[in-house]
């Protein structure tokens, strides 16, 4: 067991190759905070040439669902954070967990505790009345087999150290010390023989060869209890080195409170499906939440692998800034391949414009991306801004657009139609020259032509540049839309 002053080794256990793990509970979506934890585990393993593993901690049978498991894998794969091996499912290993509990029981590192729920409740109430912390002090801790009552259920508790202190040199938090007297004799095996989370995590980490436990700082207290199990098993059979711990701060909202639904979307799926973000943008943003490399803001996946070190993660909580994420997403949209963007936009466009035929319209949608993506912050904006390309005639008119189509502006459009009918090349350069010539002849600014022309071509008051709009729609469709307004 732990000595009077016990410190966890700061080096890699046995100088073994780095193995990290991400171990979510499948009780819902992949939380954005969980995604960052997965990212840091993935990066640390990649940076050190190690392995990154996945474990589904599905021991809560009442709340674990297949849909949640699928959502977690889906979100991880979208971010490019799939595991290097097949995932481990914790519940399927219950027999192995129980086996370890019995090993510790037989070796005297754990004990049968026959305290009833009523007895525990009475002692807890007494501690509260006396204003002192409640600690398990079971008379069964040192009981011998001949003292065990027959035909009475029991739990298996660890014999936690009672003297001295334990210090963990956490890779993020620094040295953390706990007085061993603060550790209680926690349960590792329930009265029905099923293992607790505290036991299952330790056994799984050992059997999976995990060397570095990188997780949220809400697990710091668990680390000291889990070390009791690790060290007991190391005494029993050897080969159970202390893992290296790195507890990363949780993510807070812009107001400094713990991230919750009121701060916006929590699940990775919402950022992809509802908000229309790109995985590389979310990857980059999560990377910069609490970790940095100088003043670099735009960091590629390869750069992240090269530069990442868990020791450079901030000790304090990071604040989630949705505006910053959207700005970053806009950058990645502008950098993205046009055909890929068109493929991502097409399903969203089909919802907005039922007449859109993806098979027939993909070429036009792809050709439109260079001018549409310049102003877009997300895929939803890209879809909205591309609706005009596939809208059915006669175009529905926004109120402000209809207001631009006065008798005077229609007279101008009539001259535009006549000039455009004679246009042969239908290039951006040729169209620009023609419209500028009309403006000069009429003695008006180009905007006096562009505004009603945009309204008649798109049904809106905003769009890409008017010459780009004409070029994308083509001669026949452009002229037909203008004539619709003149009619």
UniProtKB/TrEMBL annotation:
It catalyses: tRNA(Glu) + L-glutamate + ATP = L-glutamyl-tRNA(Glu) + AMP + diphosphate. InterPro entries: aa-tRNA-synth_I_cd-bd (IPR045462), aa-tRNA-synth_I_codon-bd_sub2 (IPR020751), aa-tRNA-synth_I_CS (IPR001412), aa_tRNA-synth_I_cd-bd_sf (IPR008925), Glu-tRNA-ligase_bac/mito (IPR004527), Glu/Gln-tRNA-synth (IPR000924), Glu/Gln-tRNA-synth_Ib_cat-dom (IPR020058), GluQ/Sye (IPR049940). CDD domains: GluRS_core. GO terms for molecular function: ATP binding; glutamate-tRNA ligase activity; tRNA binding; zinc ion binding. Residues 343-485 form the Aminoacyl-tRNA synthetase class I anticodon-binding domain. It is found in: Cytoplasm. A motif ('HIGH' region) lies at residues 24-34. ATP binds at residue 261. Transmembrane segments: none annotated. PROSITE patterns: AA_TRNA_LIGASE_I. A motif ('KMSKS' region) lies at residues 258-262. Keywords: Aminoacyl-tRNA synthetase, ATP-binding, Cytoplasm, Ligase, Nucleotide-binding, Protein biosynthesis. Its main location: cytoplasm. GO terms for cellular component: cytosol. PANTHER family: GLUTAMATE--TRNA LIGASE, GLUTAMATE--TRNA LIGASE, MITOCHONDRIAL-RELATED. NCBIfam families: gltX_bact (TIGR00464). Monomer. This is Glutamate--tRNA ligase. It comes from Novosphingobium subterraneum.
């Amino acid at each position: 067991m732990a000595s009077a002053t016990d410190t966890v080794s700061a080096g890699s256990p046995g100088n073994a190759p780095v193995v990290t793990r991400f171990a979510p509970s499948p009780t819902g979506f992949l939380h954005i905070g969980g995604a960052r934890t997965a990212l840091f585990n993935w990066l640390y393993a990649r940076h050190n040439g190690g392995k990154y593993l996945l474990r589904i901690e599905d021991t809560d049978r009442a709340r674990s669902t297949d849909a949640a498991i699928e959502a977690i894998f889906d979100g991880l794969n979208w971010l490019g954070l799939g595991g290097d091996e097949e995932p481990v499912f914790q519940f399927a290993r219950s027999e192995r967990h129980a086996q370890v509990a019995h090993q510790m029981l037989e070796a005297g590192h754990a004990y049968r505790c026959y305290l009833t729920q009523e007895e525990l409740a009475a002692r807890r109430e007494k501690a509260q009345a006396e204003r002192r912390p409640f600690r398990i002090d079971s008379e069964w801790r040192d009981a011998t087999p001949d003292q065990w009552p027959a035909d009475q259920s029991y739990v298996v508790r660890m014999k936690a150290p009672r003297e001295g202190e334990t210090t963990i040199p956490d890779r993020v938090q620094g040295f953390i010390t706990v007085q061993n007297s603060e550790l209680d004799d926690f349960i590792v095996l329930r009265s029905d023989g099923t293992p607790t989370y505290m036991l299952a995590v330790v056994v799984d980490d050992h059997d999976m060869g995990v060397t570095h436990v990188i997780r949220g700082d809400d697990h710091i207290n668990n680390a000291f209890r889990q070390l009791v199990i690790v060290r007991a098993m190391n005494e029993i059979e050897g080969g159970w080195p202390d893992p290296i711990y790195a507890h990363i701060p949780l993510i807070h909202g812009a107001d400094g409170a713990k991230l919750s639904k009121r701060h916006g979307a929590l699940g990775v799926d919402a950022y992809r499906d509802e908000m229309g973000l790109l995985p590389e943008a979310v990857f980059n943003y999560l990377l910069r939440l609490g970790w940095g490399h100088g003043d670099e803001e735009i960091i590629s996946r390869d750069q992240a692998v090269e530069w990442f070190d868990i020791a450079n993660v901030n000790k304090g909580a990071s604040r989630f800034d949705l505006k910053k994420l959207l700005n970053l997403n806009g950058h990645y949209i502008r950098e993205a391949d046009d055909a890929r963007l068109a493929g991502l936009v097409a399903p969203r466009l089909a919802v907005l414009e039922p007449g859109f035929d993806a098979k027939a319209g993909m070429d036009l949608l792809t050709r439109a991306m260079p001018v549409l993506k310049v102003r877009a912050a997300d895929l939803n904006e890209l879809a909205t801004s591309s609706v005009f390309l596939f809208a059915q005639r006669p175009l529905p008119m926004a109120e402000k657009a209809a207001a631009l189509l006065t008798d005077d502006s229609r007279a101008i459009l009539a001259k535009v139609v006549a000039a455009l009918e004679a246009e042969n090349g239908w290039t951006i350069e040729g169209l620009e020259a023609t419209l500028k010539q009309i403006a000069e002849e009429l003695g008006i600014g180009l905007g006096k032509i562009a505004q009603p022309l945009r309204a008649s071509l798109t049904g809106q008051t905003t769009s890409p540049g008017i010459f780009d709009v004409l070029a994308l729609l083509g001669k026949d469709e452009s002229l037909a839309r203008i004539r619709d307004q003149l009619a």
